[in-house]
Amino acid sequence: MEQPNRHVIAALATLILLQGIMLSALYAGIRPHPPIATPLFGIAPFLGAAMSVALGAIIVQPLESRAGRIMSVLAALMALVSFGPQKYFDAQFGLIYPAVLLGQFAALVIFALVASAARQHRELGAERV
Question: Phi first, then psi: what are they for 42, rounded to 5°?
Fold first, then answer.
């Protein structure tokens, strides 16, 4: 397995663990935890879907195929709902900042490496034609 692929898998695993811990805190009622409901959707089903997409990206290889790259970016975007820059304005930021910063870093790793892999695949495809 190539090093960039390992980095993306590590970042996806980080997001899965962060979201899993937040979901566990929600079920256990341990503060701080995500709200039980948000105006647009239930947070527990959303976290479950986000973790599933991240795991799916790992399974199909996050950088090797178009599907893997799309799933990786989707997983990062879904994680940013929980860990995005909007959390800097959350009243509980002082309690959740380690998860927010780590989640953002993992998402940035995914975005950067997927963009690089997509560029390489385009260049290789152009050379074959």
Answer: -80, 135
